[in-house]
């Protein structure tokens, strides 16, 4: 009896307490950091919202007309990057998880991870020194022959430093993170599902389509969101590669491209003073909100799709 | 299997040995140089000590780093910190009392001079001293074209997007011998805020006010054209693109074609002498103190020995410092950077145009007046 009444009370050692506390601290630290950033952005942005528009670059009529093209450029560039990166990353991940011989798969996975370690400045340099000159003739051909298509309207950029080049650079940058996550998710597909599909006479492609992709879909969306987050916030590579202008335009191959918020901050902060600094920080706040909204929408999609994913 | 293992371990040992040897020799080389430079300079120990903080234009950044290193070598107890955070930030910090001197691509405005200066003694003003002159080259890269002559109105037309073809009548009229292609002009400007843009725009605005209608500012004012980050970004875009034209610090023009600009009725290429000459022979801004050397650049000069597209950057210092020790330090530092040795050292690293002899004299008088 005595032993039974004593038993329910669990033994808590010092180590348990320390560990529990430290995880709690670690967990709250991230919230504190986020709150600190948000408070900083809001406090510093307030003077800019009522600022005299004359102090803004290109003297727009208000702060909102100033930030509009930037917000558009940010989302447009990230969207294009995602459009290129997601199909490619899915393909690579499937190849590694289901098609490649094991030794090759390991090597390939390692190389893809290595790509994530390249700093964005280096991607920027690669973008202007190698990619832009290489794609410029292609762009010229596209505007000459497919110029009737609105996205490829001329006149073509003479340097190739357009939003499409930026999107390609961004796509290469977000490829590793999407690939790595998608690969892990695809590998988690229950063997029984796969074998069941094969036993029913499915080919390998049909097995992938019926068992692997439905199982991995929500993981793939999460991976894409992580990639999108990086593409939205990418600064250095965009600032170096893009030829910016204050326009809202979907055209891909011209010299006048909408700039992104992060790149605009990087370009103008070094010489900014007075309200100029507040204006830049206010655009940072807008980026913060955009990223938040995008994440929120993506989470909602994942949550809605969960029940149909086959993951349960 | 054994042989390769042994081989690799042997290889590893030899690599380690090679690295160690390299490290040792490089150490030795490092240790050697300071002692030799000390004995070479042989200067008497300086009595100056303390910390000097400057904030300002990034155009002076490279030069200031060179000067700080030179000054600290001569005065071991002094630390010079120059924060290249921009002209506006520099003037603001100086006025608020946060910096001993400011670096600025434009002189103090009349409003700023009317106020008080935190670093200076009560009821004294600050003075502008030109310390850094850099010609701005208009660079181009067009197949088959080696020489290009342009005047201000045509340049303004090209960069504001009003002239769009290389074989435009305005360009061919100035270049009857050149084979200009029937192609679009890709004009590159700075996408970041920059004193280079402001000075280039000032030249165009003064000489062709009806084409270049915007007031000169750090930001490029027009929509069209290609933007690139920093001087190296512009140079890169012009080098790698087709049918390009752009403007950049002359020291970075490299092997690119450089436009000859119409001055009077001649076409003048940039040179350090011509850039220094236009600064030296421009009048000073009216109504300033005797030692305030704010220059009203004569961009409309018609003297063919002048090159009018030039950036002048100032050091802004107090006439009299609140803290005399700071005054002595600033005076000694500015004396060094405007001296022949200082200007030459900067010219080697930053590629600017050293102050001309006339201007040096005025500058020396102004610096000597600092208390």
From TrEMBL, chain A:
<dbReference type="Pfam" id="PF00528">
    <property type="entry name" value="BPD_transp_1"/>
</dbReference>
<keyword id="KW-0813">Transport</keyword>
<feature type="transmembrane region" description="Helical">
    <location>
        <begin position="23"/>
        <end position="43"/>
    </location>
</feature>
<comment type="function">
    <text>Part of the binding-protein-dependent transport system for phosphate; probably responsible for the translocation of the substrate across the membrane.</text>
</comment>
<feature type="transmembrane region" description="Helical">
    <location>
        <begin position="108"/>
        <end position="126"/>
    </location>
</feature>
<feature type="transmembrane region" description="Helical">
    <location>
        <begin position="63"/>
        <end position="96"/>
    </location>
</feature>
<dbReference type="InterPro" id="IPR051124">
    <property type="entry name" value="Phosphate_Transport_Permease"/>
</dbReference>
<dbReference type="InterPro" id="IPR035906">
    <property type="entry name" value="MetI-like_sf"/>
</dbReference>
<feature type="transmembrane region" description="Helical">
    <location>
        <begin position="275"/>
        <end position="298"/>
    </location>
</feature>
<dbReference type="InterPro" id="IPR011864">
    <property type="entry name" value="Phosphate_PstC"/>
</dbReference>
<comment type="similarity">
    <text>Belongs to the binding-protein-dependent transport system permease family. CysTW subfamily.</text>
</comment>
<keyword id="KW-1003">Cell membrane</keyword>
<protein>
    <recommendedName>
        <fullName>Phosphate transport system permease protein</fullName>
    </recommendedName>
</protein>
<keyword id="KW-0812">Transmembrane</keyword>
<dbReference type="GO" id="GO:0006817">
    <property type="term" value="P:phosphate ion transport"/>
</dbReference>
<dbReference type="GO" id="GO:0005315">
    <property type="term" value="F:phosphate transmembrane transporter activity"/>
</dbReference>
<keyword id="KW-0472">Membrane</keyword>
<feature type="transmembrane region" description="Helical">
    <location>
        <begin position="163"/>
        <end position="182"/>
    </location>
</feature>
<dbReference type="GO" id="GO:0005886">
    <property type="term" value="C:plasma membrane"/>
</dbReference>
<dbReference type="InterPro" id="IPR000515">
    <property type="entry name" value="MetI-like"/>
</dbReference>
<keyword id="KW-1133">Transmembrane helix</keyword>
<feature type="transmembrane region" description="Helical">
    <location>
        <begin position="207"/>
        <end position="229"/>
    </location>
</feature>
UniProtKB/TrEMBL annotation, chain B:
<keyword id="KW-0813">Transport</keyword>
<protein>
    <recommendedName>
        <fullName>Phosphate-binding protein</fullName>
    </recommendedName>
</protein>
<feature type="signal peptide">
    <location>
        <begin position="1"/>
        <end position="28"/>
    </location>
</feature>
<dbReference type="InterPro" id="IPR024370">
    <property type="entry name" value="PBP_domain"/>
</dbReference>
<dbReference type="InterPro" id="IPR050962">
    <property type="entry name" value="Phosphate-bind_PstS"/>
</dbReference>
<keyword id="KW-0732">Signal</keyword>
<dbReference type="InterPro" id="IPR005673">
    <property type="entry name" value="ABC_phos-bd_PstS"/>
</dbReference>
<dbReference type="GO" id="GO:0043190">
    <property type="term" value="C:ATP-binding cassette (ABC) transporter complex"/>
</dbReference>
<keyword id="KW-0592">Phosphate transport</keyword>
<dbReference type="GO" id="GO:0035435">
    <property type="term" value="P:phosphate ion transmembrane transport"/>
</dbReference>
<dbReference type="Pfam" id="PF12849">
    <property type="entry name" value="PBP_like_2"/>
</dbReference>
<dbReference type="GO" id="GO:0042301">
    <property type="term" value="F:phosphate ion binding"/>
</dbReference>
<feature type="domain" description="PBP">
    <location>
        <begin position="44"/>
        <end position="340"/>
    </location>
</feature>
<comment type="similarity">
    <text>Belongs to the PstS family.</text>
</comment>
């Amino acid at each position: 009896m005595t032993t039974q009444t004593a038993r329910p009370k669990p033994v808590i050692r010092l180590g348990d307490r320390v560990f529990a506390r430290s995880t709690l601290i670690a967990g709250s630290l991230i919230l504190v950091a986020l709150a600190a950033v948000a408070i900083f952005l809001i406090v510093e942005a307030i003077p800019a919202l009522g600022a005299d528009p004359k102090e803004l670059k290109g003297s727009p009529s208000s702060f909102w007309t100033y930030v509009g093209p930037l917000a558009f450029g940010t989302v447009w560039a990230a969207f294009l990057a995602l459009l290129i990166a997601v199909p490619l990353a899915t393909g690579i991940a499937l190849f590694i998880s289901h098609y490649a011989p094991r030794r090759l798969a390991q090597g390939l996975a390692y190389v893809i991870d290595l790509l994530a370690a390249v700093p964005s400045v280096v991607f920027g340099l690669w973008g202007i020194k190698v990619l832009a000159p290489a794609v410029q003739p292609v762009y010229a051909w596209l505007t000459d022959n497919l110029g009737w298509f609105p996205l490829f309207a001329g006149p073509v950029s003479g340097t190739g430093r357009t939003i499409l080049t930026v999107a390609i650079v961004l796509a290469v940058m977000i490829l590793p993170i999407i690939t790595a996550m998608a690969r892990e998710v695809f590998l988690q597909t229950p063997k029984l599902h796969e074998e069941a599909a094969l036993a029913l006479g499915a080919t390998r492609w049909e097995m992938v389509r019926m068992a692997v992709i439905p199982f991995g879909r929500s993981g793939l969306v999460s991976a894409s969101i992580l990639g999108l987050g990086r593409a939205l916030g990418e600064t250095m590579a965009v600032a170096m590669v893009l030829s910016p202008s204050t326009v809202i335009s979907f055209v891909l191959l011209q010299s006048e491209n909408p700039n992104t918020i992060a790149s605009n901050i990087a370009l103008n902060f070094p010489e900014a003073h007075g309200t100029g600094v507040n204006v830049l920080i206010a655009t940072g706040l807008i980026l913060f909100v955009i990223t938040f909204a995008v994440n929120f929408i993506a989470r909602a999609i994942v949550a809605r799709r969960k029940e149909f994913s086959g993951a349960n | 299997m054994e042989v390769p293992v042994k081989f690799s371990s042997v290889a590893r040992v030899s690599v380690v040995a090679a690295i160690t040897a390299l490290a040792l020799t490089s150490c030795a080389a490092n240790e050697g140089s300071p002692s030799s430079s000390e004995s070479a300079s042989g200067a008497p120990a300086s009595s100056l000590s303390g910390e000097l903080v400057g904030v300002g234009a990034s155009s002076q950044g490279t030069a200031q780093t060179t000067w700080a290193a030179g000054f600290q070598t001569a005065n071991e107890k002094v630390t010079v910190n120059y924060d290249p955070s921009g002209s506006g930030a520099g003037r603001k910090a100086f006025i608020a009392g946060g910096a001993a001197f400011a670096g600025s691509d434009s002189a103090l405005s009349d409003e700023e001079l009317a106020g008080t200066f935190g670093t200076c003694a009560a009821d004294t003003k600050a003075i502008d001293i030109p310390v850094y002159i850099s010609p701005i080259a208009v660079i181009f890269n067009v197949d088959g074209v080696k020489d290009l002559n342009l005047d201000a109105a045509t340049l303004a037309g090209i960069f504001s997007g009003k002239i769009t073809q290389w074989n435009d009548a305005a360009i061919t009229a100035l270049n009857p011998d050149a084979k200009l292609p029937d192609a679009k002009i890709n004009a590159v400007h700075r996408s970041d805020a920059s004193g280079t843009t402001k000075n280039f725009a000032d030249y165009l605005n003064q000489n062709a006010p009806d084409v270049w209608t915007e007031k000169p500012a750090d930001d490029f004012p027009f929509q069209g054209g290609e933007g690139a980050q920093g001087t190296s970004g512009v140079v890169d875009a012009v080098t790698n693109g087709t049918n390009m034209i752009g403007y950049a610090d002359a020291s970075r023009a490299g092997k690119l074609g450089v436009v000859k600009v119409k001055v009077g009725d001649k076409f003048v290429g940039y040179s350090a002498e011509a850039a220094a000459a236009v600064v030296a022979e421009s009048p000073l801004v009216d109504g300033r103190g005797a030692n305030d050397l704010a220059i009203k650049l004569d961009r409309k000069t018609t003297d063919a020995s002048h090159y009018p597209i030039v950036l002048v950057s100032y050091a802004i210092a107090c006439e009299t410092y609140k803290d005399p020790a700071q005054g002595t330090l600033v005076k000694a530092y500015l004396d060094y950077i405007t001296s022949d040795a200082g200007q030459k050292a900067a010219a080697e690293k930053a590629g600017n145009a050293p102050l001309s002899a006339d201007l040096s004299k005025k500058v020396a008088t102004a610096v000597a007046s600092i208390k």
